[in-house]
Amino acid sequence: MFLGIMLILVVSALYDPCLLARKMIGTKKKVWPLQLLALFLLLGYFAVVATGFNTRPSLIAAFLFDFLGLFFIFYVYLFFCLRVVQIVWLAGWLLSSAKRKKGGRTFFTGSFGGGKAAVGCLALCLLLVLYGAVRARSFEVTEYEIALPGITGEVKFMHLPDLHLGPARGAAYLESVLEAVKAQKPDIIWYNGDMVDGRIALRDEIFDQFKELDGEQYFTTGNHEYYVGVDDVVKAVAAAGIRVLRSELVETHGIQFAGMEYMNADRTSADSHQVNRLNMEEELPRVAKRDGPPVVLVHHSPVGMKYVAQYGARAMLAGHTHGGQVFPGTVIIKSRFPMYKGRYETDGMTLLVSQGVGTFGPMIRLGTSNELQVVRFVPAGPSGQ
Known about the structure:
Blueprint: H1 2-25, H2 32-51, H3 59-95, H4 97-101, H5 114-135, E1 140-148, E2 155-159, H6 171-184, E3 188-192, H7 204-207, E4 216-220, H8 223-228, H9 230-239, E5 243-244, E6 248-252, E7 255-259, H10 280-283, E8 295-298, H11 305-311, E9 315-318, H12 329-336, E10 342-346, E11 349-353, E12 371-379
Parallel strand pairs: 1-12, 2-3, 3-4, 4-5, 7-8, 8-9, 9-11
Antiparallel strand pairs: 2-12, 6-7, 10-11
Helix pairs in contact: 1-2, 1-5, 2-3, 3-5
């Protein structure tokens, strides 16, 4: 799929500059410089991601990752915008045969509509990217309530997956997030994977900020920790006073929390982000729990829910999907993760999927929001609800 998208965009980078310059604007100037620039920027983004250059502790890598990523999103929107223009033109061309016979103008001839359409497409795509970039620099706090049998009082839990500290997000964004966490005064704070997205984030001035929080803090790994170097990330997280759980269970506030290492659902399920050979079907039975206190499972990705239910968990918390992050990803994500954001009741338990506190790739959100989840675990009534 990745190679297919890249091939389509490479062909587009050769074709669409001609479409814009020659057919829409009507210029006779050479277009190969635009073609080369589009190819260089698109292939540059793929190269940065494919080689892991974006994870390096370099400000240049950080800038290139964000800039090239934003250009990639801009070009994807431009690609679809130009296809819409062509469809409109074709429909008009088919419906105006009489006018064409009389020498009338069509959508792409002369200055009638062509130049305005070109400027309109470019401006629309640019505005969408700018709007999305602004949205990605803020977050919203959402609240959920989950009833658990056996607990005697409310437990306030903050779920913070997908911080993605690294090339695009650093100390300033983390400070704003942690200030919001402090205001909630949670009992438990849980960073559910993908805390770190680049080695540039593995600095004392960033991780020292976590030491200012009062609540219990826990961390489970995501796939991006493996891209950066999972051992180095775990070391930095633990040094900040955050307890790391890698397929382990901790009991606190009358609840058993199973914090799972990032893994796939089972041996037969596909995972485009596979970073190890672990799977929920085999690993969950190895995490010892005791009878009595309710179990809540925390895993970065919303997979393996049936195994989580078989394990006896009453609730599962996940992230990873970003809710699709950017349209049309918000539509495509449903084919990979049917339960991709918000609350679901499945297999006799509650699944809560966060859109993520940060973003992967460029700092952009369209159709989604950065999200800090406040989960209130409350005692279940006589019926278990």
